[in-house]
Every structure is written in C-alpha cells, then in structure tokens.
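Entry type: protein chain
Record version: 2
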Amino acid sequence: MNGVDAALTVMPIRNLTFTNSFSYDHATYDQNLTEAGTVYHTKGAQIVNYPRFMYKTRLSYAWKGMTAYIDANFNSHRNYSYVGDVKVPSYWLANLGLQYNLSKLTYVKKHTGGVKDITLSFSVTNLQNTHYISTMGENGNPVSIGQGALAYQSFLIGAPRMFFGSVSANF
C-alpha cells in the first residue's frame, strides 16, 4: 500500500478557518487469484471497498460563542469485485452546522450554578440529499461479475438529508 495524506488549514482573517485535506491511496493486489483452476486477473487492481482518492474541506467562522461551518467530502469510486469489473460510484456530501455557547451570555453565567458550558447545536447532513453507497463488503466481496457480483448484494445505502439539534452541558 502506497499513498499520501496532506492537510492545510488557513486562517485568512481572525475567526475564519478554511481546512482542506486530501488522501491518495494506491493499494493494489500483487498477484492474480487462482480458484479451482480458474485464474482471476486481480494483479494491479485497486483493493476492494476503499477509494483511491478522498478529499475533505471545511469553512468555519467563530464569533462571540457562535460557530458556523459548512463542509464537504468526496470519495472516489471503489471496487466492489476483486477483479475491478464492478465499482461503486464516487460521491460528494456536504454538511452545514451552527452552534452557540450560551455560557458566553452574562445572564446565563449568573444563573446556571455548577454548569460550566451550555451549548445549543443544529446541523444538516447530506445537504443535497445525495444517494450513495456508504458501506460495502460487510458480507464479503465477490471475485467478479462471472462469480455473481451483480446478484451478491452487500451494500448499505448512505443516510439521506437529516436535521439534528442538541443541547449539551458540562458540569
């Protein structure tokens, strides 16, 4: 397995953070697979279930106890079969969030007793409601189309657009 990971965070102005990370993974099989006298050409194929490229980006802004962000991630296609004749498509996901620390407010500081931090959070995941395969190969992977790759289903679909809200406190 050969690859590289790189990350860069830039703060162009106070409280604004822009983060990017990139991963490249060149993980291939070193030899062909032989099963019951049949040779399957796996040599040089990208390993199953793992993308060759991943990219993540996030833009966030913090101001007086409030933090807002938008982020996105990309996963390139992944081999489902060992010979690489069945692939799962690449996808982009974007998320949005806002959080506010109420403890920054003087009134809240005075009236919360032993509570150190009270934080309200709201987020939306999968903003575009993208349809994608999140997990695959949990029940194993087929060798090729000829070995039933199109009939052997071992996929979990990704979560649709979801909305989350929370209140948290530290004591």
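Comment: The mean pLDDT is 92.
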